[in-house]
């Protein structure tokens, strides 16, 4: 079954964005809204599932400023003010809007810090790691509130409340209570290979050293978590504000974060636009069929 297939019994696929004011997440959000708006229009060809979209935003007004009136008026969208580092803010957003016994299908997290040139880093050197820990804590709290326990490694049974389900029901319970997490990291975060050209080494080694340390820590939080491989890390090259030029121009390098080994050819690149990165995430991971093969992987995405 594809990761992009709805993991709930509802007709819609619920998605939670943790921050969406950055260029990549904003581009993905806009494609999700366009897909949902098409779904709600009569006589429109439907190429994607209907999406229910929740955005956790520290400053909703900033996101509202970035979206068009049509996007803001979408019945599929709700924007909730909150702190991505607060599990209590995340907990109520992780359940399906129409079925509190089921979690959202997809979580897209794209939090990051503000550049601090004086410190050659960012204002919060642990912003991504802290956000990852908050998300996992919130997921644990939601499951505990529902009295659900899903054993992490090839379980023989699932205990739900006071009853024990057979092993055949494990995967269904796992899908319902382990959403697919897409988290944004960055090229240069790999400890296995260099995925940026050598001329950029001074930039990555000096100016980006502290932010990349935080990205690696965030990735390790997911690798070491009970979520195991229900996540994909996206590592874009240096980002540009250029227009969308087409997914056929996008190259993907794959690293297995469990075994710390490359899969296939090494991919090295200078840049990619925020638009193409966001579109790729939408087309390949949110509504496409590539999510399944990228579970537990880190993806270098570049031109």
Automatic annotation (TrEMBL):
Highest taxon, organism lineage: Eukaryota
MF term (GO), any: riboflavin reductase (NADPH) activity
Gene3D superfamilies, per the entry: NAD(P)-binding Rossmann-like Domain
Family the entry assigns: Belongs to the avfA family.
Protein name: NAD(P)-binding domain-containing protein
InterPro entries: NAD(P)-bd_dom, NAD(P)-bd_dom_sf, Polyketide_Oxido-like
The organism of origin for this protein: Neurospora crassa (strain ATCC 24698 / 74-OR23-1A / CBS 708.71 / DSM 1257 / FGSC 987)
Domain NAD(P)-binding: 51-281
